[in-house]
From TrEMBL:
UniProt-listed Gene3D superfamilies: Outer membrane efflux proteins (OEP) (1.20.1600.10)
This protein's name: TolC family protein
Keywords: Cell outer membrane, Membrane, Transmembrane, Transmembrane beta strand
InterPro entries: TolC-like
Record localization: Cell outer membrane
UniProt keyword Transmembrane present: yes
Length: 459
């Protein structure tokens, strides 16, 4: 950008040393008072410590405990919290930037010159320009003034960034909750299958003892008993496979939550969440696009602010001399003060190009928001349909399991008297085992849909 700088600097030099210090003090106090007044009016709040968080159990068993541990151990959530604190620090930094800035300037430049026999300079700068040298030691104080529009817009941008970070933290927390909940349901389903397999194995082992007596009594043949014996050994392998599957799913859950425990524990049954309506415009996913719209508006105002004149008050004090001799330096002590103005003149129409760029970003924002609004509504209605279908399916499976359980119980009693063939009994057990597995899967899918609906209602 091409800018023309109009600087009005009033220099008072030289002055007696006894007058320099009072003048510097008076001007410095004036600038500091102006800065303090502006800072009190516009400085944001200071940082406050984070509230205390409830302690998480070392070996969680409930879903809520895993969620609490995951939130406390998640590096993403911790990073988001730190970014929010950094945003508050950025606000304090911006307030300090609007105050008085003091810098020290020192220079010691010598410009040699070679003359001929006539005293004419043949090598070197023109002495009328350089005076042979430049020796300076200056303390300079600057303070931006008449920049209320720029300052307010910068504070609003920082506030918008803080809101975006906090909203991102909410979305991250919801993602952590969803991943932990899904894995908890996987582990709970694996544990339920393990419990059923163990219960069935214990029943088969008790039945195995009865069948051995019946085989010894000649009621069943040895070949028929071998089929049952093979079924018991197969069920033992199934129990071991289910135990390994549960250990794997539980280990994955603990890894996601950041739990160091490795013991095989029993999980508590998760409580299905209540049905909630779909979240509206205040939901984090929707609020993100509202904040993006505000940010684009502030970016446009920032472009306008960049093309406004910038005025700064300047005060300097020290010494400047063209000679390094002590007498000359002692007589070159002084102060200077005034205003510095920067006015944009021409930049190749970059302002209009930045407006066009912001307009394209606004079009993209509207497209994303419209798409996600339709998508969330479609997902919500789909989950409601899946829950209704799961309720109907569970009712049918539970009825079939009840009938199958009654048949297996009756066949177990008749097997003790030899009224039911062993193969028929094993077929009933296999059907009962298949129905129980289907029941576990259906209950898990229904819980997953209920939790997904609850997540979508808040997300």
């Amino acid at each position: 950008m091409l800018r023309s700088f109009v600087a009005l600097i009033i220099h008072i030099s030289p002055l007696p040393v006894r007058l320099v210090r009072p003048l510097i003090t008076a001007l410095g106090v004036g600038l500091l008072a102006l800065a303090a007044g502006r800072a009190r009016a516009q400085t944001p709040r200071v940082l406050t410590p984070a509230p205390a968080v409830a302690a998480a159990p070392a070996s969680p068993r409930r879903l809520d405990d895993f969620l609490l541990v995951a939130r406390q151990n998640s590096p993403l959530l911790r990073e988001t919290d730190n970014q929010v604190r950094q945003n508050r620090i950025d606000s304090l930094v911006r307030a300090r930037q609007n105050g008085v800035q003091v810098s020290g300037i020192g220079s010691a430049l010598y410009y040699p010159s070679i003359t001929n026999s006539k005293g004419e300079s043949v090598v070197g700068y023109d002495n009328a320009v350089t005076n042979g040298g430049n020796y300076a030691a200056i303390a300079q104080a600057t303070k931006p003034i008449l920049n209320r529009f720029q300052l307010q817009n910068d504070y609003q941008i920082l506030a918008n960034q803080g809101q975006v970070l906090r909203n991102t933290g909410r979305l991250t927390g919801l993602d952590v909750r969803r991943s932990i909940t899904d894995q908890f349901l996987n582990a709970y389903a694996a544990e339920s299958q393990l419990k059923f397999s163990r219960t069935l194995l214990n029943q088969l082992r008790l039945q195995d003892e009865q069948l051995r007596k019946l085989v010894n009594a000649g009621i069943f043949k040895q070949t028929q008993y071998l089929s049952f014996y093979l079924s018991v050994r197969t069920q033992e392998v199934t129990v071991e496979q289910n135990r390994l599957a549960y250990r794997r799913e539980l280990g994955t859950l603990r890894a996601l939550a950041g739990v160091a425990d490795t013991a095989l524990i029993a999980l508590e049954t998760p409580t299905p969440p209540a049905h909630r309506p779909l979240a509206g415009l205040l939901a984090p996913s929707q609020r993100q696009y509202t904040l993006d719209s505000l940010r684009l508006l502030l970016d446009r105002r920032a472009v306008d602010a960049a093309y406004r004149p910038k005025v700064s008050a300047v005060l300097d004090a020290g010494l400047q001399s063209s000679s390094y001799l002590p007498i000359a330096l002692a007589r070159s002590v002084g102060i200077g003060g005034g205003l510095q103005v920067a006015v944009p003149v021409f930049d190749g129409h970059q302002r209009q190009l930045q407006y066009q760029r912001l307009a394209l970003s606004e079009q993209s924002r509207r497209g994303y928001r419209q798409f996600i609004t339709v998508q969330r509504r479609q997902q919500y209605e789909q989950l409601e349909g899946l829950i209704r279908a799961a309720d109907a399916l569970l009712a049918r499976i539970r009825e079939q399991v009840r009938v199958a359980d009654a048949l297996v119980g009756a066949a177990r009693q008749q097997l003790a008297t030899g009224d039911v063939a062993i193969l028929d009994y094993l077929n009933l057990v296999t059907s009962y085992r298949t129905l129980q597995f289907s029941l576990t899967q259906a209950e898990t899918d229904r819980l997953r849909s209920r939790f997904a609906l609850d997540y979508l209602a808040e997300q």
